[in-house]
Automatic annotation (TrEMBL):
PROSITE patterns: CYTOCHROME_P450 (PS00086). Pfam families: p450. The keyword Glycosyltransferase does not apply. GO terms for cellular component: membrane. PANTHER family: CYTOCHROME P450 (PTHR24305), CYTOCHROME P450 12A4, MITOCHONDRIAL-RELATED (PTHR24305:SF166). It comes from the Eukaryota. Its cofactor is heme. This is Cytochrome P450. It comes from Mycena sanguinolenta.
Length: 466
């Protein structure tokens, strides 16, 4: 139950999962390992345990996230903002996603390069989608400093170093009041994050004021994420302009790279597997031949199986952290053997214990996904292989969007954005691997693809076919 390894091996291996997935096979779905300065971390990928930790008031966000997200009545805010993320709301964003997807096609058409870094194209597209759908305006109408700082934050998160991980771990030792002060330290990353938050709030405030003014003038309300709560009878009572504007920073950070990188990993899998690519393209062409208006993306079995498989194998938030806020006991779905040889189906933990929600490991458990759990195989979602039963996350029985009260607010938004972009790109282009293709996956705030030079990106050969 206690591997001979440490936090740096876990988070910064040569290839993500080198240690994590080996330890999963060796030690099972619950084990402890040493974090920085010898502090124990409990790694959990047992489904019952994950469900318990994600939903129980005995656990809160881990110290790194907690120092960024504070000062809000989380549940109240979530309930009010959710109006902009329901299935009905997200359906209204479809034309905007289609416009963003068309822009990627135009850029691919204009490129004469032999191979193109699809990752950076998708990052820009994901930013455009959030700008249009959340703030209600195209990226070019946003403040230039704000656009630049979001790119800078992206670059910062692409360069997670051993010292940064050590700094995060040390922050975890500090009492909560001191951790919050630590965010105000004059380090490069703290300054960048503070500036992004302040520019995002300013931009959010501007967007909210424009919407309030439009409503005052009797103009038709828009259907974007910020307009919907402002115009909903239930939400407008409980939300202030500042409450809404204050969410801009976290939405920009949480919604962009996660979606873009999942898509980039998915395109690499398609480039590796021309047969799968052809089958998916056939489904897309058959659907689009009925007309491009009101496309029922949810009724495309292979497309949705492919998206689920991309989320399963490449969960871009692979191990979020929680901390026990009181002594508690975590239930397990199956008995495990302790170092003493004793068998148990519950793990007692002390207040202050750091726990990693092993989303990536859970999604490779052979007991849950079969002997080929490590293999990228979308057909598992169509041939009855996937375990049916209690769903522990909001989408399929995946945990890529986490679970419980902190579940990703934008999961439906992300799924529809991916459906639309994949249909547009695969409908018109074929993707293949360049001869010298290398894909390394690293964790730096999110899972991200890294090219042969060690930079974030994944070049693919792209050919227009229609
Ligand atoms: C494939 C794409 C995405 C993935 C894999 C993903 C994953 C996640 C995960 C795992 C969490 C919870 C982290 C934790 O438990 O510590 C989260 C939270 C969140 N996500 Fe996403 N996300 C995605 C896309 C989006 C999009 C498109 C948006 C918005 C436009 C968004 C908005 C949020 C917000 C606001 C939270 C914080 C929720 C809260 O604290 O209540 N996400 N996301």
């Amino acid at each position: 139950m206690a591997p001979q390894g440490n936090m740096l091996q876990f988070v910064l291996p040569p290839q993500i999962g080198d240690y994590e997935f080996a330890w999963l096979k060796l030690y099972g779905p619950v084990y402890r390992f040493k974090g920085c300065l010898g502090k124990n971390r409990l790694m959990v990928s047992d489904p019952t345990a994950l469900q318990y930790i994600a939903n129980s008031p005995d656990f809160e966000l881990g110290p790194t996230l907690d120092s960024l997200v504070h000062g809000l009545d989380h549940q109240q805010l979530r309930a009010a903002l959710n109006v902009g993320f329901t299935a009905a709301a997200v359906r209204q964003y479809q034309p905007t996603f289609e416009k963003v997807a068309q822009t990627i096609s135009d850029k691919l058409d204009q490129s004469e390069a032999l191979s193109i870094d699809v990752c950076s194209l998708l990052s820009v597209a994901a930013f455009d989608a959030i700008s249009e759908v959340v703030l209600g305006c195209p990226t070019e109408n946003l403040d230039a400093d704000f656009v630049k700082i979001n790119l800078d934050v992206m670059h910062l998160s692409s360069s997670q170093s051993a010292s940064q991980i050590l700094a995060d771990a040390i922050t975890g030792f500090l009492p909560r009041w001191l951790r919050r002060l630590a965010v105000n330290l004059p380090t490069k990353s703290s300054k960048l994050i503070r500036t992004q938050a302040s520019l995002a709030t300013r931009e959010g405030r501007r967007a909210v004021r424009e919407k309030i003014e439009a409503a005052r003038q009797g103009l038709d309300p828009s259907d974007d994420v910020y307009s919907l709560p402002l115009n909903s009878e239930d939400s407008k009572e409980s939300l202030s302009t500042e409450d809404i504007a204050g969410q801009t920073s976290i939405i920009m950070i949480a919604g962009g790279e996660t979606t873009a990188n999942t898509l980039a990993f998915g395109l690499v899998e398609l480039a590796k597997n021309p047969e799968l690519q052809d089958s998916l393209r056939a489904e897309i062409h058959a659907t689009l031949s009925n007309g491009r208006r009101n496309i029922a993306y949810d009724n495309m079995p292979l497309l949705n199986a492919f998206i689920k498989e991309a989320l399963r194998i490449f969960p871009t938030v692979p191990f979020p952290e929680r901390v026990a806020v009181q002594d508690t006991t975590i239930p397990l779905s199956e008995e495990i053997t302790l170092k003493t040889g004793q068998r148990t189906d519950r793990i007692p933990v002390r207040k202050g214990q750091l726990v990693m929600l092993g989303i990536a490991s859970y999604q490779r458990l052979e007991s849950r996904w079969g002997d080929d759990a490590d293999k990228f195989r979308p057909s598992r979602w169509l041939d009855g292989t996937v375990h049916q039963g209690e769903a522990i996350g909001p989408y399929a029985n995946l945990l890529s969007f986490s679970g419980g009260p902190r579940t990703c607010l934008g999961s439906r938004f992300a799924v529809m954005e991916m459906q639309v972009i994949l249909c547009e790109l695969l409908g018109k282009f074929s993707f293949s691997l360049p001869v010298d293709h290398v894909l390394r996956i690293r964790f730096a705030a999110t899972l991200q693809p890294v090219d042969a030079t060690g930079n974030k990106g994944t070049p693919l050969c792209v050919k227009r076919i229609l």
